[in-house]
Amino acid sequence: MDPDGLDVGVHPRRQPEPSLHCDDAQGTRREDTVVRRSRVSVLLPLITATLVATSLGGSVVTSAGAVIAPEFSRPLVIPRVLTGSNITLTATLADVQVLPGRKTRMWTYNGTFPGPTIRRPTGQTTTVTLVNNLPQVAGELTLHNHGNHSAAENDGQPDDFLAAPMGGSVTYTYTGTEAGANERGAFQWYHDHRMDVTGRNVWMGLAGMYIIDDPADPRTLPKGEFDVPLLVADRSFDANNQLAYTFNAAGVTGNRILVNGVPQPYFNVGDRKYRLRILNASNSRSYDFALGNGQSFVQIGTESGLLPAPVRRSHILVGPAERVDVVLDFAGKLGQRIVLQNLAAGGSLRQIMQLRVTRHLTDTSSVPAKLRPLPALDSTSAATRTFEFGKNRFSGAWTINDQTFDPNRIDASPRLGDTETWIFTNKSGADHIVHMHAVDQQLVSRNGVPAKPYERMKESWRLGIGETIVLKLKFTDNLGKFVFHCHILEHEDAAMMAQLEVVP
Ligand code: C2O
Ligand code: CU
Ligand code: CU
Predict the structure, then answer these.
(1) How far is 320 from 486, CA to CA, in rounded Å?
(2) Alpha carbon of 38 to ligand 2 centroid (Å)
(3) Does the Cβ of 191 fall within 6 Å of ligand 1?
(4) Which of 2, 145, 451, 480 is most buried, taking the most CB atoms under 10 A from its CB?
(5) Which residues have a Cβ under 8 Å from the Cβ of 466 and sit 6 or more positions away?
C-alpha cells in the first residue's frame, strides 16, 4: 500500500469512524483515538505470530491469544442457495464459527457469512427485500447488487433509499433484462454500500454472491455441484476471535484468508472438470491467483459473463470486487493435493485453499472453443470524458478529477441510449479498482495497447499507478443517478467516488 496513505487516517469529510471491535457490534462505540492506535499495535504482532504459528502444524495460540488452525484443516463450505423470485435478506447479528474456539460476532445476511447465494434465471423479475435488524451502531444500510443493471432506486444508492436499523426495510426489484433482451449470464455479488462505512459494513460480514443463469450460455460447462462459487476475503481477529477493524484510508487488509468464510479450507474434488467462480470480496487486498502444481487456469469469464473464447492463463491478478470464472481439469490427478495460491503474498497468506482430488468421476462436461460473442457497441461515440484518479497533495485525500464525493454534485450527464468514451487515468501513487454501476462497458485499450481478450468486457477495472484505460460505455434503460468509484472500500469511504446522471 501507499505508505503516505497511512497518514490519511482521518476521513476527509466526517470524523473518523470509530474502530470496531466485538463489543461495538453489540452497541458500544469507542471513539477515542487511543483505542484506534492500540488496535493497530495489537494487530502487528498478530500478523507475525500467524506466520510463525502456522509453520509449526497443529493448533497454536499466538502471543495475542487467538487460536490459529493449521492451513487446510477445515472443509470448504458452500453457502446456502436461494432461488425464489421474492427473497428476503435480513441483516442480523450472528455468532459465526470462523476460527477454532470462540465464535465471531458478525453482521450477516440471514445469519451466515457469506450470506446466501442468490441464483436466478435471466429475464425473470426478482425482488430482494433488505430488512435491517442490526442494532443502532450499524446505522442505515443499503444493498447493492454489484454487476446488476438496475433502475436508480433499485441500485443500492449510498445515501438514498436506506433501511434504518432495528427493523427498517427496503425492497429492490431487478428485472433481469437489459435493452429489451435478457441480461447476460453473470457472476454478480451483493454487499452493503452505505456512504462512508461500506468498508466497515462489508468487513463485519455484509456480503454474498448472486448468479444469473442464462440458457444462451453453453450448456456443456460444468454445472451443479461442479459449478462452485468462491468468495475470497481477508480478515483480522483479536485475541477473542472477534473482528478487528480500524479505518485506514490507505486500505484495510486482514491477516487471515477466508474462502466462503472458512480460513484456508480444503475442498475434495473428483478427477474431472470444475468451474470455479472466484470473487475477491476483500476490502483492499488483491490476489494473484496461481496453482501450486504449475497447472494453468482456463479462464472462461469475467464479472460481466462469458468471454468469446476460453483463455489459458498461468496466473490471474484479481483486485477487490473483480471476479474470474475459470475451469480446472483434475483428470489424471487422482490422489493429488493442489494449492490455490496468491503469488502476491508470502508465508501463510500465500495459501488460499487446497483442492484434494479424492475420487474418480466420469466427466460429461466440456469447454467449447467458442463461448459467447461480446455484444457489439456502437462504433461512434457521443462524448469523451476524462477522469483522473488522484490524491490531493495537501490533504492527502483520494480524488477523482481533484474532487471528493458529493452526493449533491453530478459529475457527468450522459444521454440515455448514447455510447460514450470514458478515459480513466491514475496519477495517485497507488493502484485503484474503478467500478461503474449500471452501464455496459468494454475496454478499448490499456496504456495505448488494445484490450487483452480476457479483459474486454468487465465492470471493475484495475487502474495501476500511471495507467490509462479507455472504455466504451452504453447507457440503456435507466434514467437517474448512479455512482462510480474505487472499489478499494476504504478509498471509496474516503470519498473516491463520483456520480453520473443518465438524462433523457
Ligand atoms: Cu460493489 Cu459500488 O459497488
Ligand atoms: Cu456495483
Ligand atoms: Cu482506490
Answers:
(1) 9
(2) 34
(3) yes
(4) 145
(5) 426, 427
**Would you say the CB of residue 144 lies under 6 angstroms from ligand 1?**
yes
Q: How far is CA 111 from the centre of its chain?
A: 19
Return phi, psi of residue 264, to 5°: 35, 65
Residue 42 backbone dihedrals phi, psi, to 5 degrees: -75, -35
- pLDDT per residue as tens digits for the range 352-386: 999 999 999 999 999 999 999 999 888 899 999 99
Distance 420 CA to ligand 2 centre (A): 19
* Atom 3 of ligand 1: nearest residue by CA position: 146
Q: Which ligand is nearest to the CA of 438?
A: 2
Query: In ligand 1, which atom is closest to the CA atom of 156?
Result: 2
Cα radius of gyration rounded to whole Å, the chain: 22
Q: Is the CB of 120 under 6 A from ligand 1?
A: no
In degrees rounded to 5, what are phi and psi of residue 178?
-155, 125
Neighbours of 86 (CB within 10 A): 11
Backbone angles phi, psi at 181, to 5 degrees: -125, 175
pLDDT one-digit tens code per residue, 250-295: 999 999 999 999 999 999 999 999 999 999 999 999 999 999 999 9
* Ligand 1 neighbourhood includes 437 CB (under 6 angstroms): yes
Closest listed residue to residue 281, CA positions, set 442, 115, 158: 115
Is the distance from CB of 77 to CB of 262 less than 8 angstroms? Answer: yes
Q: What is d(CA 247, CA 19) in angstroms, rounded to the nearest whole number?
A: 7
Residue 196 half-sphere exposure, CB side, CA atoms within 13 Å?
15
Q: How far is the CA of 219 from the centre of ligand 2 (A)?
A: 27
Grid cell for residue 317: 491478478
The C-alpha angle 42, 47, 48, rounded to 5 degrees, equals 105
Per-residue b/e over 429-455, b at no fewer than 16 CB within 10 Å?
Answer: ebbbbbbbbbbbbbbbebeeeebeebb
Q: How far apart are CA 490 and CA 140, in angstroms?
A: 18
How far does residue 393's CA lie from ligand 2's centre (Å)? 29
Closest listed ligand to the CA of 320: 1
> Quick one: which of 455, 372, 362 has its CA closest to 122?
372
User: Which ligand sits nearest to residue 193's alpha carbon?
Assistant: 1
**pTM of the predicted model, to two decimals?**
0.89
Which stretches of the chain score pLDDT less than 50? 1-58, 62-65
The whole-number pLDDT of residue 334 equals 98
